[in-house]
């Protein structure tokens, strides 16, 4: 089905409550379409779930039942100021809790950047719940130094100059989202952060588990679509290529630019849609391929 043939799909906002030692955490998600071909999409670092609105609608219009989730600390979900609650493992546990909440035995789980790492972690802690993986811009060994350089200033600013983040937050809130391009609105939402939770979030991710180990990655048998971007210092294409080689049942797709899936999504939407439909057609042998 082409973009011109897509059908309208239902969209519903839901909430998931998780009981913790601190009380209750609330997570918010959006559900697209219906049926048993579940897909869960996870956002990048500090980004809202609506970054995947377009892909979710494309998949749902082709028959998938898609859920986009704001992980703890993201978007409209709760944002506690406790670094102990933020880790790739705890995020993966939230995804499993979401599947339980929805009554979904399995799902294709995917995400961008942090969302890709969390998807890998779901495949490690709950392999029977993962039908397939969509992994865009994973952050692995090659990217760790760049990530530290990029986000250490954010941690220091949130800890020692919280007024700067508060000022940015109020400035971004003053911009009506309806009058700016969609991706600029996503960026403004990402900047809408309170200092305490941001400091806790970055601290937790810096000093916690960032991704499954090499041994664990090689043991993941679920089909995987790995998407890498050229000329992206925070998400080197080498990490994506290496991950595709490590996963025994993967396909590698090279994006034409960092922004292709955001600004000209048709080609990669088609690749993701084909992958999801293949995953839900039943067990198949998939051949590794690389697209230039």
UniProtKB/TrEMBL annotation:
The keyword Hydrolase applies. Keywords: Hydrolase. SUPFAM superfamilies: alpha/beta-Hydrolases (SSF53474). InterPro entries: AB_hydrolase, AB_hydrolase_1, AB_hydrolase_fold. GO terms for molecular function: hydrolase activity. Residues 38-143 form the AB hydrolase-1 domain. Pfam families: Abhydrolase_1. This is Alpha/beta fold hydrolase.
């Amino acid at each position: 089905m082409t973009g011109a043939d897509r059908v309208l799909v239902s969209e519903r906002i839901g909430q998931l409550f998780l009981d913790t030692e601190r009380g209750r955490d609330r997570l918010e998600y959006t559900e697209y379409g219906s049926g048993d071909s579940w897909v869960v999409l996870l956002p990048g670092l500090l980004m809202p779930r609506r970054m995947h609105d377009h892909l979710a609608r494309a998949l749902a219009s082709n028959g998938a039942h898609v859920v986009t989730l704001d992980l703890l600390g993201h978007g409209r979900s709760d944002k506690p100021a406790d670094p102990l609650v933020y880790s790739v493992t705890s995020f993966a546990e939230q995804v499993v809790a979401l599947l339980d909440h929805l009554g979904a035995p399995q799902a294709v789980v995917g995400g961008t950047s942090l969302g890709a790492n969390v998807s890998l972690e779901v495949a490690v802690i709950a392999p029977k719940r993962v039908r397939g993986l969509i992994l865009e811009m994973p952050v692995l060994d090659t990217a760790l130094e760049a990530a530290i350089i990029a986000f250490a200033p954010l941690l220091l600013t949130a800890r020692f100059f919280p007024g700067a983040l508060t000022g940015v937050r109020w400035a971004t809130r003053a911009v009506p989202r309806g009058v700016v391009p969609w991706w600029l609105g996503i960026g403004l939402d990402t900047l809408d952060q309170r200092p305490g939770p941001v400091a806790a979030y970055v601290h937790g991710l810096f000093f916690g588990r960032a991704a499954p180990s090499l041994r664990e990655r090689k043991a993941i048998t679920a089909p995987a679509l790995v998407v890498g971007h050229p000329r992206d210092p925070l998400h080197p294409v080498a990490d994506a290529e290496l991950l595709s080689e490590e996963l025994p049942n993967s396909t590698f797709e090279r994006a034409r630019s960092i922004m292709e899936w955001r600004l000209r999504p048709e080609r990669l939407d088609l690749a993701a849609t084909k992958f999801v439909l293949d995953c839900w057609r039943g067990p198949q042998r998939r051949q590794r391929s690389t697209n230039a």
